[in-house]
Structure formats: C-alpha cells, structure tokens
Amino acid sequence: MNILFAHWGETPLRGSERILLSMSSGLYQRGHGVHVICNQQVLASAIDQHCESVVVFQRSASSFNRRLVEFVRLIVSTIHIVKKNKIDIIVSNNLGTSRWASLVSMITGCRFVCYLHTNYLPRARFASLAHLSDAMIGVSDFVLEGFLEDGYKRDKIFRIWNGVEVQDPFESKSEIRKSLEIPENAVVALSVGAFVPFKRFDMFLQVSSLLSQKHHCYIAMICGDGPLRMMLETQYSESNVKFLGWKNEVARYIKAADFIVSCSNREAFGLSIIEAAALGRPAIVANRGGQVEIVEDGVSGTHFEADSMESCYSKIEQMILSPNLYFVQGLNARDAYNKNFTVDVMVENIERCLIQIDESRFDDHSRWAKILRLVACSRRLFIVRLQSF
C-alpha cells in the first residue's frame, strides 16, 4: 500500500510531528510505500530516512491572489506525487492540509483520511473540508466528538491511541535530582506542556504554591514554554516551583519526579502522560478531554474535577501523604503503557485501519457523492458563520 502523509506545522517538532515520525518509520519498515509532503525542513530532514520520498512546500504568499495561486500549485504538485507514486491513501496529519488534500482525492480518486490530533470548533471542521474524507482517525474519542455531532458516520471513524518510545535515562533518580538541586527525600510533581490558557498552568502553580507552604517536602517542576510563561514565572518566582523551559526530551525530568500532573481542561491526548507511564510514573489529570481515556482513575493515576482548585489540591495532597500510592499506581501505569501505548501497538493499529479503509467500498466514495458533500459542507459553514455574528 502506498501512503502519502500531508502535514503543516511549526518548529520545534511537537506531538503530532513526533507521531508522524513514528507512523512513517513503522509503516515503512513493514514494507509500505511511505511518502510525505510538509512545510518544515526540520521535519523533512528528520523523516527523510524513514520514507521513500519527502517534499517540502514552503508557503510564503501574503495577498489573496498569491495565496490562491499557491493553493493551485500545491494541488497540482500533490496530484503529480499521487500519480507518480501510485498513492492509494492520502492521510492529512492535521486539518491544515485537509482542504487541498480532499480536492486532490476528488480529482485522482484515491482514498482520503483525516488524522486528528486535537479537537476543532465547528467553523474549522467545515472550512477544512474534512467531512469529505473517506474515513477519520482520532487519537482519542474526545477529538472525534465534534465530527460525530456534525453527523459524520460512526462506522467511518476510528480511534487509535498514540504510542511513544521512551529511552530510560542512564542517570539514577538521585543523580538527576542532585543536578537539579532537589532533595532526595522531596515529593516532586511534574507538569509538561505549552504555557497557553487551556493548559491551566495558572491553577497548577497556585495549588503547588499552597501545598509547598503546608508540605515543605513538596516541589513542583514545569517543562514548557509559551506566551504565559514570563507572567507566571514572575508571579511564582518565590514559590517552591522550578521552571525548566522547553525540553525536546522530558524523560530525564519525568524520572526525577514521583508523579505527573495535567490540569488541562481540553487535552486531546497527553503524550507526556504515557511517557511518564513508560517510566513507571502515575498521572493526576483533570477529568475532561482525552487524558481521562488513558488514565484509569484509582489504578494508573487519579482524576480530579476540571478547573477545580480544591479537587486538584486534594488529589495532589493525597499523593504527598501516600508514597505507596504513587508507587503502586506507577507500576499499573507501566503495565498500561506496555499493553496500549507503545509505538509498535500504535503502528499495528494504524496499519490494520488503513488496510481496512483501502479495501472498503464506501457508498459515498464516488466523485459525485463527494461533490454533494462539498456542497453540504459549504452550506453548513455558511450557517456557522452566520451564527457567529
């Protein structure tokens, strides 16, 4: 089977790019023809050894007319790639590529699949033309909910959890803590992600500041960067919190921690959570979004009420007071990782899914059926825009 992955993104390489690297490498090793079109030279260089071909399409136009010309050039270039390499399936690794990928699918007749790594608002769902896809894959049930609400057929939707490969650092937990100036007997919580509002680092920091005043053994660490970092770092500079900045590899910091915390109120999945599980660290997560699907409450971690400081405080304090709790849950988390969240499991599920899609005979795969869906999408987008005024 010949597959074309399409991806638009930004550097540094984040979650969806990391999953694309693992997917393309795994499918390539299993004998499939893997091709990639992207807009990042960094990604192209990283993925070049794990696919048959990679094309970098730099977008630079600013005016509407130039963007339109660029859009047409992109469609023509992709059609050439599809025909030259006899592509069976185009996989849009985010909605940024689905508009032109859907049109290429209509013209060439090859299958078109949307791979969702986050949840989208109605306007984005219809403007992207993702509803023209022959099937849809999501990293969690949470990211697929919106399309189901739109009326997308359930039998064409597949949920495939992400998988990661984690290298256990050679340093011991004690050695890492010493280098970070953290006492060996401290209870350490780690949170990972971008400093954006929905991640709720403000709440995590407020809770951690209160906890460190009551429990002097408690220390919080954050790996991440973003627009809110400077403000929050200044606000909590005197608290028992270590701001570590953006880290491409977080395994070292996970190993230094006792558990991981995610206060995000709409997390699509949570790669850092399964990275922590791979190293035997449980997670305390808000009970909203895709993260609740990968952390079993009371078994491999703990859920707390989203956006509730009191609930978050209570669950973290429970961990501080019960070292045996995070040890047992950490063992369970590692078992869950080995069963569900390795790269091999993910690639196997993706391969099975793409083969099923390629061999399926959908009633609405014809060009005329897709044209009718395109008209329907345009109508729904018009209605959504009217409602936004």
Structure description:
The protein is α/β, with parallel strands linked by helices. 48% of the residues lie in helices and 16% in strands. Strands 3-2-1-4-5-6-7 form a seven-stranded parallel sheet, sandwiched between helices. Strands 10-9-8-11-12-13 form a six-stranded parallel sheet, with helices on both faces. Helix 3 crosses helix 4 (98-108), helix 8 crosses helix 13 (309-321) and helix 11 (271-278) packs across helix 14. It starts with a strand and ends with a helix. The model has no long low-confidence stretch (mean pLDDT 89).
Order of helices and strands: EHEHEHEHEHEHEHEHEHEHEHEHEHHHH
Mean pLDDT, all residues: 89
Q: What is the overall number of helices?
A: 16
Low-confidence residue ranges? none
| Radius of gyration (Å) | 22 Å
**Ends apart, CA distance between termini:** 46 Å
Tag the structure with descriptive keywords.
389 residues; alpha/beta; seven-stranded parallel sheet; 16 helices; 48% helix
Strands, helices and their partners?
Layout: E1 2-7, H1 15-29, E2 33-38, H2 41-47, E3 53-56, H3 64-84, E4 89-92, H4 98-108, E5 111-116, H5 122-127, E6 135-138, H6 141-150, E7 157-159, H7 173-179, E8 187-192, H8 201-214, E9 218-223, H9 229-235, E10 241-245, H10 251-256, E11 259-262, H11 271-278, E12 283-286, H12 291-294, E13 301-304, H13 309-321, H14 323-340, H15 343-359, H16 367-388
Parallel strand pairs: 1-2, 1-4, 2-3, 4-5, 5-6, 6-7, 8-9, 8-11, 9-10, 11-12, 12-13
Helix pairs in contact: 1-15, 3-4, 8-13, 11-14
